[in-house]
Fold:
Amino acid sequence: MKVLGVEFAGKEMRYILTHQNDDEITWDEIYEKLSLSETRSHEHLRTFNTAVGTLLAEIEPDLIGIKKFQENGSMSSGGAAIKMEAILLLNATCEVKFISSQKIKKCSVNDPPKKYIANALKAAILAGEQ
Structure:
């Protein structure tokens, strides 16, 4: 099963593709960041939408795991994260699971490819286990 793990951080969508079966989890060298630099620009939103649609069409994930962010309160996410999440959800053609920050914090992963991608990797792993 191909599981795409995603974390929204600031104006970036960080993602990694994992391959999961009953006894093994591996990940590709497909880990990147997509950015939404201007949240009130029609052109930037359309460009981000196209990039997300292209990504999902190319990798065809069976499942998407997203690190859940807080929507209100002092630790809430900004407008960019909310817009990027909405665009991802609109383009998704598979099931999407949201993983809490508490579960991600408790999950340990040995040797993620890059430190910045660790939470997206954990989201993918935990989504595949549910």
